[in-house]
Amino acid sequence: MTNNEKRKTPDANVDPVTLQGGVASISPSTFYYGSQGQGQQPPLPPNRPAVAALGSSTTGHYTIQTSEKSPFREPELVPDDSDQLPALDDYQADQDRRPFEYTTPPRETWEPADEGPWPSHSEQYYGSTSSNPFAQTDRWIASGPAPSWGAYDNSWAAGSARRSVPIDGRNETEEMRWWDVQVRGVYARPGHGILPPVLADRLHNPEHTLFSISVQPPDLKPTLPPTPTHSQPAHQAPLYAPSPLNYYPAAEEVRTAVPHPSAYYCRKHNGWVLLVWKSSSVNPPLSRSFNGTLPDHSHRRMTNSCIGDGEQPLGPANVTHHFHAYERAVDARRLTHPFNASEWENEERSKLRNRRVTLRGDDPTPAATVLEQVPADDTRMDTEQEESEGELLDLYVCCQCSFYVIASDVIPGVIPVKLLEDLVKNKMENPPLDRNGELAALITLETILTIIENRVWKGETRQLPVSRKTFQTKLGWNTTLARIFESLGFETRQLVGPVPDVALSPPDIDPTTPAGKLARSKLLRGWVELSAWVADYSKRFAPALRTHVNPHKLWVKIDSAREEYQHAIGAHPDQIARGQLPQILNDYDKIDDAVTNLGLTKTTYSPDLLAFAYFAQARCNPAHTIEYFTSFYTVCQMVTTMTDEPSQTLQSFVFDERERGRFTREDFREAPTVLGFGFHGTLGVEYDDDVPDEFVENAWREAVRRAWREGGDGQHLTMANDAFRRMAEMRGSEALWKKWEQAKDGGMTPERAYSTLEVPAEIDDGMLITIFSMRVEDQPNQVDKMREAISVIAEMRDSERLRKFLETGSDPGETVPTARQDWPRGLNQLGNTCYLNSLLQYFYTIKDLRDAIAPLLNSSGKTMDEEKLTDDDLKRHRVGGRLVTRKEILRSKKFVSELAELFWHLEHADIASVTPTIELAKLALVTSKDEEDDIEQTATDSSNDTDATLVEDAPPRVGPVTGSPVGSPGASSSSVLGKRSRDKEIGSRMSIDSFTDKDNYVIISKSPDAGPSGLGGGSGGDGGATQDVEMKEGEAPAQSGAKPPLPPRKTTESVMMFGRQHDVSECMDNCVFQIETALLKFDGLDESEDGKSSVVKRLFYGTSRQRLVAPTSESARTLSTHETENVFSILPVSVSDEGYDLYDGLNSYFHSTAQLDSDTVSMEITLVDLPPVLQIQLQRVQWDRETGQSWKSQAFVKFGETICMDRFLDSANPDKRARSKTILSELTKCRDRIHLLTTGQHAPFTSALSNTHDVLKNLHETMHLPELDSQLLSDLIAERDYLQDELELLRASAASMKQELEDIWKEEHEAVYELTSVFIHRGSTPQWGHYFFYSRHLPENPDSWFKYNDSEVGVVPKDEVLADTTGSTANPYMLVFVRKGSDMISTVKRFDPMSLEDA
């Protein structure tokens, strides 16, 4: 007989059955009993071994075997209050326990016989083969163990010798080109997946037990209450008698108190979970709102199931299922047995929704009004969706077969679980004298069940006073009990009488009225749930309840469903063994992320299952192949290195995958370093996604050439090729990958190349081409091999001549890299000098500056003695607000002479790029003060300095210098990426009028103790600024302490290469200082002090007026205004994180506040005189006071081709300025609030609130925190929504005020400037990176831009220059504008040979 037949044929001597609808309901406790009624050991379930692996997907089991008898008592299995699993190795069942049977079909397939929409009682719990509607086309998963792991020995690719595991659906082309978007688009894989053990944990909390519930209609008869006597007081009589017409629930109504045939009860939630699983050739009923894509159905329907005996006749194609999750994908109303929430459930949800949108009523701001409206719209949308769709359930689909699983979230029960837990806890902690706490709690729960049964089946409608002795003895009375009865539909009423009392009024459950029908279904549901709770409670505390004399009869039976759904989905221990992971790794946290990423659990690990999980993930989500191989390799490495017996299977898998070109994330991080990227690399450039493919290819070719030159065993060549391939794949670059593929197929080395062509390595290019042509004529069948050989030689030599020959087939002769005559020339690097190259190219584009420097070519030979400068001559001239020394003048003339020579080469050179001299670079990068410090910190050159200059060369002053121009190194000690600090400036000076220098900035020193850079001392700062290019290896740290002074020594190039290195701003200060010093005139013709006689000051310097408004008395009723005028050459703009434009940054500079003593004063700056060349610095380096570290802001600052400075002029319209100031004040407050909510340690707060809600919710589900309730969780979500709406309102208000501000000045166009130059810093940190430079092609083609990237110069569209750099590390850090209409910029100045012919 089959198992189904056995279940349908009751034994003659079974316990009495309860007839319901003509079908016998057999008690599970007597199912396997013999004819004599003696207990016999039940048979094992089908195909189950006698001893099976124990544990679930989250627990493990292992046995310590020993031949010696332990002196200690053997451990015993004792019940506790946690969920219990049925034992797998002992099937001696109790009389009240039914052994688990695998052949029980999921209840989603139960079909009614003739009893309405629900199945009959016997079919519901023991199955019926005839009623399965999917018997022909859809087959439920049969029971049976999974095939043995040893049986899996087939290979995934025909003819492959690799070790493999059964897995279907792989494609070699797709796996090898996982990085190719087009290839991935052809196959449209479903994405990340999980294995059955993980699914089992996802279906419901693995710490909880789900129970299948069977309900039997109670055999209860109504009992009429005694009629009150005449002597009974009136106030004690019932308010109304039992209902004359009782509608007792029918068997069908009782069974449908369970929410759904496929609903499972969870005691720890006091709720339900819908679980439906099946194999079907038809896709599940998807919701209308689902817009995802399921795995290929045509492939899935070919296999019924990946597990089970007979499921795959030709052998197992897959080790197990591979599921893919689709949240809220299935409409519960469209299931075979539709799930519809009851009316009372919908009412509860509506109340919860209304409570969620309730806002604080004490906030009269407009934000609160908006906040009240938004949730209302959301609520209406949710309601409309609920009307069109039912409950949305999660779907898990196996991508390789027709099996899928549908699961719901927890469907809350009638009584909140926290109330039940509080009730039980209170009774356990405060039991009566005659019983223990466990029994007291049970009696209380049973009493509540009795009250419900009396109302439903006995028609009891009388009120129940809570003060009666019996009630108080069994129940007591408190707020928790009141809320429990309230949730069941009972009402508390005040009884009127001599002694006031409270009574429970039963709900009206008349099914003929809508309200009664609603209360009836709710009360029945609550009765089922409470009965299930009591049944589980009685089992968990059975030893403590032995003294219970008269237990309440339960009409609800519970059976653990864990093994049922585990076996159905393929997660049962009989199908996937547990405990194979070495014990040392079970507690090793570093393995957790790797295992989770593969869709596996640690307890279900096995070498084959790990390999299957990896291959399945790579198959279904090829774009993340490297992440999956990294996880796979991590687990394999840990198992291999941390255990005594490394797994040969895993080592084979790793070796095979490495052979296929797989690499880890760590391998990829090392790849750029192999090709020379990084601060210490040969390229000196940081690698990121913005680096062009051509640059990567050139870096690879250079690395290959280096490997060829070094020779050796070829390891460096292999590393370079592997690194290039990895970078090509991670970038998804088809072009780079093809380059690698062409190179790897040949395997030609320079030695083989020379041997192939039979030539010596010393042969020149011309002779090599000649011999190559001869060899090809003699051996035409070897032409491909010979071309490859000469190609390798061309790359090794970096020979443009050989490359041209290979391209054209003819010898081009001696070639020089050509460049267009009308294009600017690039500058070759001398090391990490990309920032110097950008600056020199910028200087060359400024026509007046270029013309002023050109005549000084070869002028450095003129000595100081020839000029016969006296001390009075030196005292008459100041640069940067200070006197200069003879040595500085001589040094400056050398610098300008070298610069003039470079400008000559930029004008006349035919090659594409020229190389600055080492002397020029040294003079530009190293200040005279740096040279002095390099010799001796306190040394002074007395032979060149007068008494006056000795005073001026004293240690740097802390305060700013009046009139100090930024062009002088002493006046701007800022990093160009740095941030200024007005607080230090103002606080350091006693006199308001002396606070003049607006352009001094905070210097971020490498040393934590370094302070701001000195001002006015020497020809540079103190060298303590944060460098965009870090110090090189071997750099000697600064010495301190009282050591004997070193004798003077000659300064060499080592100062530049190993000394202090500066960024563009400091380099610019030093260069401009030397240009201005070299152009000084000592002939008595330059006596003006207005600063405009110098070409440097005429070009770059303007005048600003600063106003400080401070209180004059303690009452602060009167204010005093202090004004002063300063010179400037750079306007700083602080870069924010919240999408500002250039005007916003300038507004924050011209309108701000400052601290004066203990007062906050208003500071306003206006422009009195604007320079022809306007330089605006974007301060990207920010200082984190908490971490003590500097960081680079990557925020995008919007700017355009023009800027109007009218609003900042001192002569601007006063009314417009006043209006602007008012708007700007409100705009600043608004943006400060946005900044507070979106940035900082705990911001953004909306995300923080969401994360807090999720964490608390998970903690509550697992730990049942008593102080945590649903109200707190709702408040967190409400607060998040409140802040989100406030942010939207603030952003809208900020945009409106910003537009209003722009409208005020839209007609003002007197001071218009045009953008001409943009400096770019590419790098994620301010410590190092790469610099390049854009220059507008003026005056010939203003819509075209040149990009100067060291030696490479090319034309780019203006869209690239003005592009939004959000998400990129390449950002502008300095913008240069020139006054519109001025003829200041001549980007391209090239020598025209035709001009000589015309002359």
TrEMBL record:
Domain of life, per UniProt, equals Eukaryota
* Region annotation Disordered: where it falls in the sequence: 1-131, 929-991, 1003-1051
Give me the stretches of Low complexity compositional bias: 938-949, 959-978
Q: Does the keyword rRNA-binding apply?
A: no
What ranges does the record list as Gly residues composition bias? 1013-1024
Q: Which reaction does it catalyse?
A: Thiol-dependent hydrolysis of ester, thioester, amide, peptide and isopeptide bonds formed by the C-terminal Gly of ubiquitin (a 76-residue protein attached to proteins as an intracellular targeting signal)
Give the compositionally biased regions (Polar residues): 26-35, 55-69, 121-131
Name of the protein = ubiquitinyl hydrolase 1
Q: Which SUPFAM superfamilies match?
A: Cysteine proteinases
Q: Name one GO biological process term.
A: regulation of proteasomal protein catabolic process
What are the record keywords, sorted? Coiled coil, Hydrolase, Protease, Thiol protease, Ubl conjugation pathway
> Which GO molecular function terms does the record list?
cysteine-type deubiquitinase activity; proteasome binding
Domain named USP is located at 825-1380
Query: Which EC number applies?
Result: 3.4.19.12
InterPro entries linked: Papain-like_cys_pep_sf, Peptidase_C19_UCH, UBP14-like, UCH_repeat_domain, USP, USP_CS
* Top EC category: hydrolase
Q: Please note every region of biased composition (Basic and acidic residues).
A: 1-10
As recorded in UniProt, coiled-coil segments are 1273-1300
Say yes or no: keyword Protease present.
yes
Q: Which Pfam families match?
A: RPT, UCH
